[in-house]
Amino acid sequence: MFRGFGFLMVFMVMACGVFSQEMKQDTTVKKYSSKDTIPGFIRPDMDEIVVSGTMRPVRKLESPVAVEVYSSQFLKKNPVPSIFEALQMVNGVRPQLNCNVCNTGDIHINGLDGPYTMVTIDGMPIVSGLSTVYGLFGIPNQMIDRVEIVKGPASGLYGSEAVGGLINIITKSPMKAPLVSADLMATSWQEYQADLSASFRVGKRTRSMLGVHMYHYDQPVDHNNDHFTDMTLQQRLSIFSKWSFERNFSRLTEMGIRLYHENRWGGEMNWTDQFRGSDSIYGESIYTKRAEFIGRYQLPMDERVLFSWSYTYHDQDSYYGITPFLARQQIGFGQLTWDKAVERHNLLAGLAMRYNYMDDNTAATFDPLKQGNKPEISWLPGIFVQDEIRINSRHDLLLGLRYDYHSKHGNIFTPRLAWKWKTFDNGVFRLNAGTGFRVVNIFTEDHAALTGARTIEIKEEIRPEQSYNINMNYNHRLVMDRSLINLDASIWYTRFSNQIIPDYDTDPNKIIYQNLDGYSVSKGISLNSEYNYENRLRLMLGATIQDVFVVREKQEKLRPVLVENWSGVWTVSYSFPKRHLTIDYTGNIYGPMRLPLLGPLDPRPAESPVWSVQNLQVSKRLRQFEIYFGMKNILNWTPTKDVPFIIARSEDPFDKNVQYDASGKVMVTPDNPYALSFDPTYMYAPNQGRRLFVGLRFTLKQPD
Description:
- The protein is mainly β.
- The chain has a single domain, classed as Maltoporin, Chain A, CATH 2.40.170.
- The protein has a 22-stranded antiparallel beta barrel. It has a five-stranded mixed sheet with strand order 3-8-9-6-7. A two-stranded antiparallel sheet has the order 1-2.
- About 45% of the residues are buried.
């Protein structure tokens, strides 16, 4: 398993000798002032510029909306192939794998499923619809400058899908990006990835940046002996090009394009392409092609008026056993914003238009009258206004309102309110309240609707989801002689008056979808703490306690599946400045989650255990080069611990030997003592165990 990595042990022994010598020699003391930052870590400094909270550049200290910022250096403390996996180090944010076979996933914020989180690239809604499941992979890490996260509804500015929160991936500017950068990594599971980028000048007033991401894994592994792959095999290629144009009066003009191709499959160990769509050997095979275009153009006028646009094309050719899912989606988005400062007011107004075209082979785009296919086309024009009012030096008030008209569901209003109180020089209290709405597409968002033996039942026409939220946040920074401490605490409450929640409990043979006949709630508290001592020891500890439940009419409250009651994350870094060495220890821990069972006889636990994935990395910088190595999942934890099986009836994936009674329920037979059918959705954590990794980074900066 660890073939080809023996040299790591020698390198680690040598490094240990260097560490012991460094501890004796390096006695550098760094003293801080109130304006210092923490290099290469989470950015707690309040002077940095953020844009996600108010859709306009503003100092973090002055933003009435709490925005968490994670730098590219922080993301490197646990090197991973995609931003999807990198977010496992963020408190209150959990990447969730939804299938044991194809390893599809989404991102949960504060206990809400992935479709409630809007993921944007440079503020543009690129990752939505079909790409909610597959589009979070393949963004070249070398092109990421930082990630800004807003927890809680942001529909007042960003519209549908921003109900649970916003993740804004901000890419580097070609004007400031390194001339050349590269990150190459391999693991003992024979995973190989490469992230490459280069910036160059095109003519006198144009600069471009080109990034390439490649990921390759093609070695089937079955450590849990269920005859299915523990990890999906993947070949992925992503090309991202971004252009920046110098104009008079520093007016902004940028545009970018990303092309993405992926081939992934998981299933029985002896599956090959020739069995795709057949009922002899089970496999889930997904071919994905995407094209994305984004741009921003500041109009040549005295007022600050910005036109932004994006377009995505997603083509998916997939088979889940014998069930095909063939889908094509196009999303066009355009937005015109006007930003104006008038005395104590910062005004923002905008016009937006969203076009969605969806065509697939499911009932969602089937016309029963014509007995043929009917693509779903929707238009969503909107208008929004926002006013940030400077009451005095300590108090700011934000008032906002958005109106959208959905071509199918009609008028939608989303008001927004925020209040910021600067309690001390280094303390800020924020109160945010607002509403959210979201139009649901079951087949693009819920992987369980396409795989396994459960029958899909949609009881009625699905209405948009509606919610309201209140969030209180307090941030305080302590500056001492040799250290910095940053504390951030939040309390939130979100209530849905209508939410579409898959019902796995009423009938174990079905997944039932209908409008909520009661209400649902997500509430909780989270705390982030950051500590830096002498710019050498750096700690980040985060914890979240949450209560997420559904109350249906005449029923007791029920916790949804795959929602933890509590979680924690940590990052511990220690640097040896003279030796240019850094040790990073990262990890997360999650409380029990309710899991989807297939009936009263299912022998698998109804709840997951407390589980934790922990990682260790050692890195050394040699001028423009950085060598890093370490171990992932050092506890070798996988969800197969103390569980009879993960995939139900993996020996009969097409249910050829399952017998049913007259009502359609699975019967107990000698071959099927637990009355189960094939189902791979009992999944809450990765199946990858302990593995070593080694990598090399190279950076050549632009001349000053």
